[in-house]
Structure formats: structure tokens, C-alpha cells
Amino acid sequence: xxxxxxxxxxxxxxxxxxxxxxxxxxxxxxxxxxxxxxxxxxxxxxxxxxxxxxxxxxxxxxxxxxxxxxxxxxxxxxxxxxxxxxxxxxxxxxxxxxxxxxxxxxxxxxxxxxxxxxxxxxxxxxxxxxxxxxxxxxxxxxxxxxxxxxxxxxxxxxxxxxxxxxxxxxxxxxxxxxxxxxxxxxxxxxxxxxxxxxxxxxxxxxxxxxxxxxxxxxxxxxxxxx
Length: 226
Prior knowledge:
The chain has one helix and 15 strands, in the order αβββββββββββββββ.
């Protein structure tokens, strides 16, 4: 039996067992290079952590994932074949989502009112639709190296956001009004960025090195570190 076929048999057997693991809290499948799809995980009602980092053949995730009411952490880093992550379901417990280096990811549309950390570094997402809720808990937003052209206007309403990284976003031309909670703004190598206005008074670290098109910079809040 070929190695690829054997791997599929092993995964199929494993997932048959998985359907009966009602008390499963964590599932780690890091670097499962031959994994092309996930089964229905509806029965894993107590699942809190799902790690699929490095599953480079995975093109999509099973919609049952979005019905897991206790899922807190979803790690899809280096899932280089993933193109879409979208659902209208409320991910009520999700606090951590890692999509770093999902280099084919183009569509992101989720509802996650309790998310605290969102990682979208080095993706093809040009714009994202993310419903955070009126009392957003988002604290860390990493967009380094993404092809995003503009930040959503509602970013000013993310009242717990303290760290924003848009470094190496070469298509980003402007940064809208930012929330008063922001303390760190990393905008290095944003070669198309032309203006920075309405900087929040809470800002402590601002890095705009190598922003070759930057023309306007509002009066800086103090104290400020570079």
C-alpha cells in the first residue's frame, strides 16, 4: 500500500473513533500534510482547542466547526491551500484565531464577539468581514504582509484593541481613525501609506520606518517610543 493511501486509511480510522469522543477537549493535527478534509465534528461538543497548523492540503474546514459552542482556539497557520473561511454562525467562545501564512486565503467572514487575538499575517485577504459585536474584546490584530488595501472603518470601535500590526502591507494607503485604547502601531514598510491622522492619545509605540510615501503625520502624543 502506498504511503499516501495508508495515511488516508489511518486518518479515516482515527476520525471514526473521534465521533464517539464526546469529552474531547483538544485536537492537535499539526503537519498532517496529507489531510485534505475534516469529518463532521458535531459530536465533539466539548472541543475547546483545534490545531491544524501546517495541514497544507486542507482546502476548507467542515462547517460543523462553526457549531462548536465551546471552541476557544482555532489554529490554521500554514494551511497553504485554504481559500475561504466563512460562516453566519456565532462563534460565541472563540478567543483566538490564527490564519498566518494561509497564502491562498482570500475570503474571511465570521461572527466572533469574544475574540481577543486575530492573526492574518501573509495572507491574500484584501478586505475582511468580521463581526466583533458592540463590546468587542479584540486586543491584538496582526495583518503583517497581507495585501489588504484599507482597514475597516469600524476599527475605531474596537475599544480593547491595544496592538495593531500592519507592517509590510504594501497596498495599504491609509489608516482610519483608531480606537483610544491603542498602544502599539507597527506600520513599517507600508510603501503606499500616505497619511497618519487622528493618532490616539494612548499610543506608546509608533513605528513607521521605511514608509516611503508618508506625507502627513499628525502631532504625536506623548510619551511616545520609537
